[in-house]
Amino acid sequence: MKSWREPVVTNRPVQVERVPDGTPLDLPAGTHAEITQALGSNFTLHVEGQLVRLAGRDADAIGKPLPVAVEAHADVKLDEVKGLVWETLKTCYDPEIPVNIVELGLIYVCDVIPIDDERVMVSIKMTLTAPGCGMGEAIANEVYEKVLALPRVAECNVEMVFDPPWTRYHMSEAARLTLGL
C-alpha cells in the first residue's frame, strides 16, 4: 500500500485530536503539517512527529473544502433508511486505517426500528480493532452524529461491544487486499 502526503499549513488556530488516544490539541495558525489520510469526513495530519485528526467541519483551516456528506433527500421512504444508514457508515474511518468501518468489519449490528409511520430509531453495535483504541469514542461519536442527521432518524444508539473480539477475519476481502493482508 503506497502512502501519500500532502503538505499544508494551518491558516487559523484549530483544535484537533491526537491519534491514537484522542487527546484534544490546539494547533496555532501557521502550523506545518502533512495530510496522510483524507477519507470520509475527517483528515489525518502528521504534525511534528505525531498523527492528529482534524474534523471535516474545520477543513478550511488547512485550505480544503468541507467534505461532502451522503446525499439524503428529506422525502426518503421509511424502507430506504436502512440502506442510507449503511451508506453513511461507509463514510466513517479510523484515522490510522484507510478502510471504512463497515469494510473493516467493525459494525456488528445495525437495526432500524420504526417508531411510527414517519420516524425510526437506529441501534448500532460496533467494536474496535483493539479494545484500548483511544479513538473509539471519537469514531462512535462520528457514527452517532452522522446517523442522527439522516432524514427520518429520530433516535440513534451506538454501543461499543467487544464480544466477539474483532479479528482481521471480520474484514471484507476488499479491505484485506487494500491493507495487504
Brief write-up:
By secondary structure, the chain is of the alpha+beta class. 15% of the residues lie in helices and 30% in strands.
Oligomer: single chain
- How large is the radius of gyration? 17 Å
Class computed from helices, strands and strand pairing: alpha+beta
Tell me, briefly, the overall form: globular
Helix content: 10-25%
- Poorly predicted residue ranges: none
Find the CATH topology of the largest domain.
GMP Synthetase, Chain A, domain 3
Number of helices: 3
The CATH architecture category of the largest domain equals: 2-Layer Sandwich
Pattern of helices and strands: EEEEEEHEEHEH
Write down how many β-strands occur, each being a DSSP E stretch of 2 or more residues: 9
Q: Kindly provide the name of the CATH class of the largest domain.
A: Alpha Beta
What is the fold's blueprint, element by element?
Blueprint: E1 6-9, E2 14-19, E3 24-27, E4 32-37, E5 42-47, E6 50-55, H1 81-89, E7 107-114, E8 120-126, H2 136-148, E9 153-160, H3 173-178
Parallel strand pairs: 8-9
Antiparallel strand pairs: 1-4, 2-3, 2-6, 4-5, 5-6, 7-8
Kindly describe this structure:
The protein has 181 residues and is an alpha+beta fold. The chain has two domains: 6-62, SH3 type barrels (Roll), CATH 2.30.30; 78-178, GMP Synthetase, Chain A, domain 3 (2-Layer Sandwich), CATH 3.30.300.130. The chain is 15% helix and 30% strand. The chain contains three helices and nine strands. It has helices spanning 81-89, 136-148, 173-178; strands at residues 6-9, 14-19, 24-27, 32-37, 42-47, 50-55, 107-114, 120-126, 153-160. The strands form two sheets. A six-stranded antiparallel beta sheet has the order 1-4-5-6-2-3, with no helix packed on it. It has a three-stranded mixed beta sheet with strand order 7-8-9, covered by helices on one side. A hairpin with a 4-residue loop joins strand 4 and strand 5. The model has no long low-confidence stretch (mean pLDDT 91).
